UniProtKB/TrEMBL annotation:
It comes from the Bacteria. SUPFAM superfamilies: YgfY-like (SSF109910). It comes from Oceanicola granulosus (strain ATCC BAA-861 / DSM 15982 / KCTC 12143 / HTCC2516). Keywords: Chaperone. Belongs to the SdhE FAD assembly factor family. This is FAD assembly factor SdhE. GO terms for biological process: tricarboxylic acid cycle. Pfam families: Sdh5 (PF03937). The lineage of its organism: Bacteria, Pseudomonadati, Pseudomonadota, Alphaproteobacteria, Rhodobacterales.
Length: 87
């Protein structure tokens, strides 16, 4: 049986919030609150794959300290746009 859309959004929101690295909790929760509900099914698939990456890699990509893999570039750009304190 497939997961309901609302259940998937709640699960992904929880995974965004409980990362282990506080900085990533804040960055991913800001993105989840602002944009998660508006993502298409394929974008949610891509976000779920992104959440499999380590916090250290994600933080380096979002902060610009390391090059972003092409597969994650569109989502990383959108997450960086929603970063707290970003104008």
């Amino acid at each position: 049986m497939s997961e309901r859309h609302e259940t998937r959004l709640k699960r992904l929101r929880m995974r965004s919030m409980r990362r282990g690295m506080k900085e990533m909790d804040l960055l991913l929760m800001a993105f989840a609150d602002a944009r998660l509900a508006g993502l298409s099914g394929s974008e949610l698939d891509a976000y779920e794959r992104l959440l499999e990456e380590s916090d250290q890699d994600l933080y380096a990509w979002i902060s610009g300290a390391a090059p972003v893999p092409a597969a994650h570039a569109p989502l990383i750009a959108r997450i960086a746009e929603t970063a707290p304190g970003r104008r």
